[in-house]
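Annotated sample (chain length 359).
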Amino acid sequence: MGITIKKSTAEQVLRKAYEAAASNDTFLEDWTFLATSLREVDAPRTYTAALVTALLARACDDRVDPRSIKEKYDDRAFSLRTLCHGVVVPMSVELGFDLGATGREPINNQPFFRYDHYSEIVRVQTKARPYLDRVSSALAGVDEEDYSTEESFQALVAVLAVCISVANKKQRVAVGSAIVEASLITETQSFVVSGNDIPRKLQACVAAGLDMVYSEVVSRRINDPSRDFPGDVQVLLGGDPLLTVEVRGKSVSGEGLEQFVSSATYAGFRRVALMVDAASHVSLMSADDLTGALERKYECIVKVNESVSSFLRDVFVWSPRDTHSILSAFPEAMYRRMIEIEVRDTEMERWAQLFPEDS
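Output written by the structure step:
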């Protein structure tokens, strides 16, 4: 039942394909075009990982049906999830090519986890449909044209070349040495609350700001089912809970704040913060001693910031870093935190353009 791709073989083939993609400058145009299209704003982030994994499987064994998802489908099927999780994801980290999705198991998402084969996929978001059709059609062509392992290898090389190009672009470090801290705060405020992916950028900003003060800062992907702490960003001390921050891009009520404080203290946090930036938000600080009442009730410290600039002023004031270090480190930290939470490439580029490299 099905075909099992040997892990050692897959690792060897993928490493060889990566080396070819990194050293060559001519690639199969159709596959380059497909891989590039999967980086468009509306393209689901998991599709690149699925494409790389399918081509890798066929490059290892030409009997493989590249559109199979689960090994149980038939005697030509392979496990897309197993190969992706066991080989493709860890090697993308080791070698440094970008899969689009940053999670450990990108195939454990829509539409792949509920189906056994691409031909069975019927439920998919409207804006994702064209991209799924492109990937499915391309992989069907591999089967219909009876691609050999070498032909599949060359297609894989072309796709990896795009992955490498994207990774190299993201490695550019934004340096803010030409501006003062106040200007950095103003620029960051404007950037975070405009454009696309505002909730993700807000969370990345909080994590990057805390990076200027603490060494152990944890930021979770939005809607991460494995989230095991209340709040969006946590500071740990030797692995133990120290501070948790709820990050919101919409109005938060006093009741909402109390619910968060309650869950945070129940989880062991004694420092609890809210960072909210939304035009519709009604200030909680105008309430009569709301934070003081919560502190007495839950025996903790409660801090509320109601704008990006307010939050950054606090963390920069208390940071042990000198001014030059913050100006250099924060733009880079923000960039890397945005990568971590999967902010779209257009916003990443917009951030980098705020801090041009010194000529």
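Annotation: The first strand starts at residue 217 and ends at 219.
Annotation: Confidence is low (pLDDT under 50) at residues 173-178.
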